[in-house]
Amino acid sequence: MPPGNGSASMAIPVVDFSSWKNTQDEASRLRTAHELVKACQTVGFVYIINHSLPKSVLDEAFDWVKRLFNLPEEEKMRAPHPEGWAVHRGYSWPGLEKVSQTMSTGNDEEAKRKLREVPDVKEVYDIGSDENTEQPNQWIPDEALPGFRTFMIKFYWECWAVGEELLRALAIGLNLEDDSYLVDKHSGHGNQLRLLHYLPVPAEDLEKERTTRCPAHTDWSSLTMLFQDDCGGLEVEDVSRPGTFVPATPLKNAIVVNVGDLLQMWSNDQLRSTNHRVRMPPLADRYEGPDRMTRERFSIPYFISPDPTSVIECIPSFTSQQQIGIAKAQVTTKQKAIRLLDLTSSEMSSLPKDTPVYEGVGKMFVGVPMSTVDKRLVAEKAELKSDVSGLEKKLSSLEMTHKNSMEHYERFVKSGERGTDEALFNRTKKGMFRMKDEDSELYCYSCKPVTVQNTLHRLDIQRFPDSVRNFGSETYWLDQSLRQRSATLMTSECHWSLVMFTSGIQTRCMP
Questions:
Q1: Does the 316-416 domain belong in CATH 1.10.287.370?
Q2: Could you tell me if 316 and 393 are in contact, meaning their C-beta atoms sit under 8 angstroms apart?
Q3: Predicted TM-score of the model (pTM)
Q4: Could you tell me the pLDDT band of residue 492, with boundaries at 50, 70 and 90?
């Protein structure tokens, strides 16, 4: 049992992978796989000890991280994070990135509003596969840090070797017929190696929430492997007490593994993607010097993501009527064109509490214009008509009412008229909200996007006149919590139409 988790709090399980490496002992491997699955089902986080990454490699990795962030600013800026949201590579200076996904941290609305305006105080360097041309690496020149690129390329693939074993163990522990089911959807080229440096800050700034290390969020990937230094500060939400967090105390040479949103979708919510955050280190290890500065913290997360063409669908064994979620929906993970809308801090803070916002540079996602999906409607509506009863009528209605929603919303936001008279954000029982202005009423809803690339989160927009607004009990697709639907065909109908009209992601319904 890791220290610091306390008997009264949720304990983060420890799984020993030493027996997994013995390929001749199938019974021990199966036991390890079941332990891993149980941890991912009950907590969503697990310490992996006695894995295949040697201590010497991890020590060298942290040495390179410290050397990187100790470089002068002008040297680090020779490999800057590219502008915009599409590429997550290179160096991000303190304040560039902010995790803005609001999570269930209690009912204090004022605290949540303030959280959105609190900057993260960290610097980041992102690395991927050199063969991923859609996410080109931004390397520090060799003369600035000789040997850094060579080591990090090698370390990237060494991490992936461990990730492959974790995915294979999960497949076995989930009793899948094919233990390569998950591995086959991950080539390793879509992964992301992130080097993180949390800067020393006055303890008072953290205590009074004038700054934060990393607010509560879930990861969008399949799995995350985290390597920590000895500073501490990572906290995991207690699944039995939402809003309460327990420390993930550093264990020497252990990997902290957590389930991401995509793997939760794949398993129809059988595996748990759990909220987590980075706060101040433990009290005994919190301050340095008379100015009460926090210790700096270094960590190395490795995000494991499926290939962009992979299909996110419920694993067949998790599609029973007793396991209701997204079992009826099937979507490809290739992200199509999505438009961006700039938001100021004040605009972000005025959004409803559950609005997911892109984590990068203060932008949020909105639905694409109808023109981007017009060509697919002709072919796909005919196919879906035979699969999903009653969907044709809804699609026709939505087609007529959606065409100008994007242009209207952009005018609405850019006009700056977002006071309580012109724009009222009202929560409803179904988890959506309304925005009213003098011209019309916009119905908006937030959801988890079914895409792999760039850990995207977005706010989706639709507009409905009175004649289309109310579908009675069939208005499930306006609900934010798609996973909590009753066991009806409406789950697949509405999930399809939601994805179709808001992101342009290719979709098809399962029989």
A1: yes
A2: no
A3: 0.62
A4: very low
